[in-house]
Amino acid sequence: MKPDSGATNSPSETLTPPQKRQIDRAIGDLRRNLPVLLKDPDSGQGAAVLSAELASEADIGLLKQLTGRGPDLVLTDKRSHYLHIPPNGDSVQRLALPPSGDIAAFIRSLADPARDLESPLRGPFRRVREKPGPAVHAAIKLLKAAQLLPAALFSTCDGERIEALAERENLLVIDPAHIAAFETARAIGLHPVTAATVPLADAPKTRLIAFRPDGGGVEHLAILIGDPRQDQPVLTRLHSECFTGDLIGSLKCDCGQQLRGAIAEISAQGGGVLLYLAQEGRGIGLMNKLRAYHLQDLGFDTVDANERLGFEADERIFLPAKRMLDHLGIRAIRLMTNNPDKVSQLRQLGIDVVERVAHKFPANSHNEAYLATKKRRSGHYL
């Protein structure tokens, strides 16, 4: 089976490759603790954004100097819930910061739940009355894409000042609508880059095909095993990368067993494909997954840990898998999974999932609570 060289990007793609590269640069700037500027072309309003988890007193002063006003703190509704901030009917909350004190330490303590149990009662908090607009939501989405905690220092100013700042300080100006479309557009732009034969211990006849977004970004891999027949549903596994489980043998999850077990089973059945997706920690990234592990050590389950960090319980989308299957010419699959959401998402994307193939392994003393949570709270068939 060869990648379909004739596969093209969908006409619904909304971002050009330069626009995607610009957002990739913004992601890098945030990770370097550099401000990113947002400007809504409809309202003309702008904002400067920094990561709250990296905040220092100097950063707060910088935003005030750049925009002429002190920043606010933007949190997700998930994080706000655990801080006992009443819901506002939106997925984000914008809070005014106190006028004095160690404001940077205060910001970091709200962004990172590592010490929640030490300081269970904080506040009172004063919400910004203005309804969160596209730029506020875009700031959180950009921080998630950067695999930083979804908490932003957010300072507004008018659009003309934003343009002047961009030119004077060599900073990026991003349209919030581009950030909102980025995840989908990057998935749509996936294309095969290279392929090689790589014999595996349990599947000697294996070929790896690397896929890369056309605007840059992290690659995904298709592990093509044996000789799958395209005139029949192809045995398929979607596997999100797990450094701890796949590579160093962590006992806190069952990912390594699922990876190696799927490769062996696909080979034994004559062929199929395993899509190795760059979605560490259900899409929150390795550093945040380790933070979630720390919270689990404190007694929170895997769902509460992700949400306490400010994320959804599962941040993944499976459009990259759909695009990879399209390039491989695969239209119907037998999906190896215990996750009903994978089946549902792929069917919604137009993949014919003709069968769900059970794929589970015995628990151990380190992951039995984790697996029980997946069954109880996420509906996994375990």
Q: What's the helix and strand layout?
A:
Layout: H1 17-31, E1 36-39, E2 45-51, H2 57-67, E3 72-76, H3 77-82, E4 92-96, H4 103-111, E5 126-127, H5 134-145, E6 151-158, H6 159-169, E7 173-174, H7 176-188, E8 190-197, E9 206-213, E10 220-226, E11 234-240, H8 243-247, H9 255-268, E12 271-277, H10 280-283, H11 286-297, H12 302-308, H13 319-327, E13 332-336, H14 340-348, E14 352-357, H15 368-378
General description of the model:
The protein is α/β, with parallel strands linked by helices and 382 residues long. It has helices spanning 17-31, 57-67, 77-82, 103-111, 134-145, 159-169, 176-188, 243-247, 255-268, 280-283, 286-297, 302-308, 319-327, 340-348, 368-378; strands at residues 36-39, 45-51, 72-76, 92-96, 126-127, 151-158, 173-174, 190-197, 206-213, 220-226, 234-240, 271-277, 332-336, 352-357. The protein has 2 domains: 17-183, DHBP synthase; 191-279 and 316-378, 3-Layer(aba) Sandwich (Rossmann fold). The chain is 39% helix and 21% strand. The chain has a 7-stranded mixed beta sheet, sandwiched between helices. A hairpin with a 5-residue loop joins strand 1 (36-39) and strand 2 (45-51). The chain starts with 16 loop residues before the first helix and ends with a helix.
The gist of it:
This protein is α/β, with parallel strands linked by helices. It has helices at 17-31, 57-67, 77-82, 103-111, 134-145, 159-169, 176-188, 243-247, 255-268, 280-283, 286-297, 302-308, 319-327, 340-348, 368-378, and strands spanning 36-39, 45-51, 72-76, 92-96, 126-127, 151-158, 173-174, 190-197, 206-213, 220-226, 234-240, 271-277, 332-336, 352-357.
